[in-house]
Amino acid sequence: MAVFSGDWIGLAPAWLCWLVPFAGALIVLALGKISRKAMESIGAASVAASAALALVMATWIPGADFPIRLTAPWVELAGSSGDLPFPAIAFGILVDPVSIILANVVAAVGALIMVYSIRYMGEEPSTTRFWFLMDAFVGSMLFLVMSDNLVQMLFGWEGVGLCSYALIGYWYRDSKDPKSWLTTWVGEGNESYPPSHAGMKAFLMTRFGDVLMIAGVILLALSTGSFSFLEIAGRVGSGGSHPLLLPASVLILFGAIGKSAQLPLMEWLPDAMTGPAPVSALIHAATMVKAGVYLVARVFPIFYIAAAADPGLIRFFEIAAWVGAATAFVSATQAAVSTELKKVLAYSTVSQIGYMMLAMGVAGTMAEFYIGYAGGIFHLMSHAVFKAALFLAAGAVIHATGSRFMHHMGGLRKRMPLTFLGVLIPSLSLMGVPILFSGFWSKDMILEAVLESGNLPLLAVSLATVSITCFYTVRMVGKVFFGSPSAPAAAAVNGGGADGHHAGDPSPLMSLPVLALSAATIAMGALGVYEREWLARLLGGYIGSLVGVHGEIHLGDPAAQIMVSGASLAFIVIGAVPAYLIYVRGMRIPTWRPLRSIGSFFANRWYINRAYYALFVYPVFRLGGWIADRVEEGALRSAERSAQSSLLWIVGRLKKTHTGGLNENLIAALAGMILLVAMLLLVVVP
Amino acid sequence: MSEAFSAAALALFFIGLYCIVTRRNMIKTVLGIEIMTSAVNLNFMSYASSGGASDPLGTSIVIVSISVGAAIAALALSMVIAVYRKTGSVDVRELRRLKW
Amino acid sequence: MVIDLPVYLPLLPPLAGAVILTATSSLYRRRSYGAVRWLVSLASLLASLTFLVLMVPSVPASYQLGVYGPPAGSCLRLDALSAFLCLTAVAVTSLSVAFSYRYMEHDRGKNRYYSLMLLLTAGLLGVFVSGDLFTLFVFWELMCISSYALVAFRKHEWEPLEAGFKYLVMSTVGSLVALYGISLIYGIAGTLEISGIAEALSGAGIVGYFPLAMIVTGFGVTAAIVPFHTWLPDAHPAAPSPVSAVLSGLVIKGGIYAIFRVLFTGFASYGFAVPLIILGAATMTIGNLMVFAQQDIKRFFAYSSVANMGLILMAGGAASRIAGAHPADAGLAYIAMAGAIFHILNHALGKSLLFLSSGSMIHSAGTRSIQSLEGIARRMPWSGGAMAIGLLSLAGIPPLGGFWSKLMVLAPLAALLPAGDPALAAAFAVVLANSLIAAGYYTWLAQRIAFKPAAVPESVGEPPASMVVPVVILSIMCIGVTFALPWLIPVFEAISRSLMGVR
Predict the structure, then answer these.
(1) d(CA C187, CA C208)
(2) What is the CA radius of gyration of chain A?
(3) Is the per-residue pLDDT at A641 higher than 50?
(4) Interface pTM (ipTM) of the complex?
(5) Which residue is closest to B97 within chain A, CA to CA?
(6) C503: confidence class by pLDDT, cuts 50, 70, 90
(7) Which residues contact C87 (CB under 8 A, 6 or more apart)?
(8) For the segment A314-368, what is each residue's pLDDT rounded down to a tens digit?
(9) What pLDDT does A580 receive?
(10) For the domain with range B2-94, which CATH number is right: 1.10.287.3510, 3.30.390.10, 3.40.50.740, 2.30.30.100?
(11) CA dihedral A31, A36, A41, A44 (to 10 degrees)
(12) Hey, is C106 helix, strand or coil?
């Protein structure tokens, strides 16, 4: 019988927090036809309730003895004698600081975005699908975060992937009229994609990562005999090294790479901007793309312990660190030349997640892992807050000017002051401007970790990326809010722009969430010092107890901190000042040939996207067409043409034996019986 | 004694089988089924009887089997009649329209 | 609370219902009373279901019919396997009968139809609860004769006639061969009680294996084992869709059940293991290969039923092989057998779902050709969606039910690969290859039904609610199997343990 173990009732928020959004999704489906207001309220309220539940969980952090597991058996094939080496799959909830922090981030940011969506999607004819998918997404994401084992996490993983695909392609009708092209498509020229294509691209790319991840999960389960995170960690510690662990770890990393849009699977995220702004904010900035980082954080104890026994496993962390650093750099360069507002933010997201991956990777190579680990988690939290604000504000800007291109914007500072504030503050946080902004504290914690690890090339790449980050951020702010307005923006400013777009601050339902998030990023920044320490102690102590490392949490000596802060400040200035001069002050720069070709290289996305299409997408289309024409039509239309393939030849011969004549059928039956008797006599009578 | 009956039942069984498999006339097919049924009944009785009172189990099986045989024959013959109405013949080879 | 109910009780309502319907047949000549007929049928089936549910705690139970006790008399026995199969049977039949109300609205002779369905159910339940071969034979014939009449129900069309006659002849020959085998067992053992024949047969030596072959052949005809399967691709499509659902979902399982029951309980050693594996492999492979040539959707499903029966047979054969040749790994044998029984459930749910939902499509679109039914899910989202779930479940896509039963069959075979047993290694390869092929064609059909542009005219739409609801209920059950795994898996393992016994 199914036995529920653990305090399911007392710890109810742990499973209610994802159950409520799922229930909300179903209710939304029912209410959709009845009342739009009711549907929107329920849709938003369920996520708000989820946020409240997550907050309750946060209150457990000081007192509780982590980790807490709630389990119920699900599939146990081993039988009573346990002869089958198939690990049991249980249904479990893992309540620990990491999952509580993530749950709070997801639910709180999600609630604000839902409020924003009420007004943003207000003009769409029928939004039942939107609310259903958003609620289902939040439910799946929380399910993923609270999972105690790999299989269950995979369910949530697939769920968020599915909702993401459906929401990216929300405007799947791909209308080609100029107005829609300016707002719902993405890209230019022959790299311009409609929403349905973008959704499919996201799905397939993450799918590729997922397949590798599933292989990795299977390898990990087979080599350790369990699917549960804690149990695997326990067995790896006592069992010694196992040759399958390194391949398993890298394969699992690929899943994280796919979902978090890192190299080499990063191309889907910039093109996922065809979705509505709340979708980009929730899924592609604050939550789903963090799932990969969360996965790495969850398997971190396992491979950290294993690395102690088998030093070869350090490779896993090194690969993660370099993937993160390289991605951060490459996508930052692409952001620096991008012409679309949301694309800049998308590349920026990829880049910042690269930092988190870098932090996790670097942490694994050090004895004082907690600096990197806590830094990664801290940056996850602070990035979620400021990036969501940026995307929501960008949505307002695009809606107001009727175009996604930055050259259709400009000079909006005066007409949209609140929005400007809502962009400026998060941007400063993104750049890592010191003291008052959370981005500074979190990014510097990561840089500190990199410094402590002693890996100077990584540090160099990270610092270079800081510069480029500042460059593109200031460039974005300058192009959108400063300078003289472009024609469409000017028309919008005077009211009656393209299709009556009226540039002005959006309604409170849309601007309040943006401002709330901006305030949050300042608040987190003001408390930055304390947060740093608290996270490091909390996570260091918790993960430390898992991996068996106990000791003093040293947060590094002040000298290192000041060095890092100083260096980052220097690089901020290097990046920000030129951008300020060019885009805010409007200084003209001479067009220098090498700079131009570098710029176009970046603008062509380092030709990675084109390469993928040429190598994978077009050949598969052609192969599929060939198969459809030659094999399917041939087989279906005239099955007599059994020469198509050996399978059809066999089927053709087989068909001749099924003549339909009753006498033949009976003879065949009797022949079968005689054969059976013969078999029995042969087999049984030795 | 019962061995002779069993042998006869076996022979009858194969005669019935031969009849079903080789005859083209559907009614003969039904007859073959009936012959096989009789064969099986004979086999049962050959084991059930011991000169005196017969074993009630075997006897009751035979009685049930006879009634089942009758039902099957009725059903089969009604199908034969329906086929005859449609095609004017009772040749089994008419029933080849459904192939692979 | 254990209620002591006699084992024959679930059989009574369908029988009573059939009698009542026939006796009051003159009443239904008026249109408005047609619903009463349907309701009477449903009521009797639901009564049967209620009795079964109430009897579950008192499993295992038995009941003596008549004056003579064993070994001469007849008995009914309700053990875990019987209870499980009876519940499945009544559930699927109730949904098919519910579906029939609108599906059969244009047919004549509906009175006979409902009575025959009830008789079929009664026969099926009787087969599952019989404790000796005589009772088995009686209910077996009841089930078979009802099914012959139901296949040939639309006798004004050619296809049911041809299919019905061929089915009748082949199945009757099969029943007679099985009966002959039973008579040989009677001659050897002097009794027909299933648990009592084991000793006598083991003492008989070689002669004991002739009745075994005849029984496997005879029941194998109904169970659609190659080469006795040729009636099925004609009969299942020719029958009206609800009847096809019951035939594919339940009646053929009756054949497999009879084979397993007689073999595992009646024969002391596992000598029949390898022939079962060979037969199962042939059935599975030929069934899967023939699917590729099909353009008629019901024939497509019919051949896939053959293939799935092959899987169940192979699983049983593998289980007996493991138990016989590798007695130290008996736990794995139980898991394989549990997988076979689980697959009975999955296939019953899935295949009846497929036949019912395709029945909706045929009813609305008027065609059975896959080419013409392309994209019909766009016009009929509920039926199309449910069909897709059924297809994915049978294809073995996780997390739907079919995946778990195939896993339970493959995992023990994989675990024993190092042992180097050629029969088991071959079984593993065949099951794996066939599962992949089957997954291929199921998803191909799903893609055709759902994602192609609709080939049917705009006027085609969802059928009436009484045809959509059973289909949706079945699809929920297919999904629900996944959630119910913690309860289902121990039940199946217990069933397989009691079936295979302790040797």
Answers:
(1) 11
(2) 28
(3) no
(4) 0.93
(5) A660
(6) very low
(7) C49, C52, C53, C56
(8) 888 999 999 999 999 999 988 888 888 999 999 999 999 999 999 999 998 888 7
(9) 81
(10) 1.10.287.3510
(11) 90
(12) coil
SS3 B83: helix
CA distance C416 to A647: 30
Mutate to test the interface with C, among A76, A217, A684, A685 (most CBs of C within 10 A): A684
Q: What is the least distance, in Å, from the CA of B2 to any CA of chain C? A: 10
CB-based contact C227 A671, cutoff 8 Å: yes
Q: How many CA atoms lie within 13 A of B74 on its CB side?
A: 9
The pLDDT of C275-300, averaged and rounded, is 90
Alpha-carbon distance A669 to nearest alpha carbon in chain C (angstroms) = 5
pLDDT at C86 over 50: yes
When scoring B18, B36, B95, B100 by the number of chain A Cβ atoms within 10 A, the one with the most, hence best to mutate, is: B100
- B17–C179: do the CB atoms touch at under 8 Å? no
Q: Record the pTM.
A: 0.83
**Per-domain residue ranges for chain A?**
1-148, 149-172+184-603, 646-686
DSSP H/E element including A537: helix A528-547
Q: Which residues, in sequence order, are CB contacts of C496 under 8 Å at separation 6+? A: C319, C334, C335, C337, C338, C340, C341
State yes or no: pLDDT of A373 exceeds 80: yes
Binning chain C into helix, strand and coil, the percentages to the nearest 5 are 80, 5, 20
User: How far from C79 is each of A8, C103, C269, C450, CA to CA, in Å?
Assistant: 36, 36, 22, 42
- Range from A513-527, A592-606, A637-651 that averages highest in pLDDT: A513-527
Model confidence over A553-565: pLDDT tens digits? 776 677 778 888 8
A660–B97 CB contact, under 8 Å = yes
Cα A109 versus chain centre, distance: 15
Nearest one of A446, A462, A439, A422 to A528, comparing CA atoms: A439
Residue B97 distance to chain A (closest CA, Å): 7
Beta bridge mates, A675: none
What's the pLDDT score for residue A642? 40
Alpha helices in C106-196 (DSSP H): 110-129, 133-151, 158-189
- CB-CB neighbors (< 8 A) of A217 in chain C: none
Contact C220, C287 (CB under 8 A): no
Confidence of residue A171 (pLDDT cuts 50, 70, 90): confident
Q: Is the dihedral of CA A566, A570, A571, A572 positive or negative?
A: positive
Give the residue carrying structure tokens 């086929």.
B83
Tokens of A659: 């003549």
Cα separations (Å) of A111 from A53, A105, A191?
A: 12, 10, 34
Domain ranges of chain C: 269-503
| Confidence class for position A643, pLDDT limits 50, 70, 90 | very low
Residue A144 has pLDDT above 90, yes or no: yes
The encoded tokens of residue A630 equal: 């030659």
CA–CA gap between residue A351 and residue A316 (Å, rounded): 20
Residue B90 has pLDDT above 50, yes or no: yes
Tokens describing residue B50: 């011991």
What is the maximum alpha-carbon separation in chain C?
69
Q: Who wins on pLDDT, C204 or C361? A: C361
pLDDT in tens, A588-601: 766 677 777 777 77
Q: CB neighbours of A308 closer than 8 A, spacing ≥ 6?
A: none
Two tokens at C354?
A: 């497929």
**Region C333-353 average pLDDT:** 94
* CB < 8 Å to B20, chain C: 169, 173
Q: Do A662 and C166 touch (CB under 8 A)?
A: yes
d(CA A517, CA A567): 28
| pLDDT reading at C311 higher than 50 | yes
Task: Give the list of residues 6+ apart from residue B39 with CB closer than 8 angstroms, or none.
Answer: B9, B10, B12, B13, B15, B16, C180
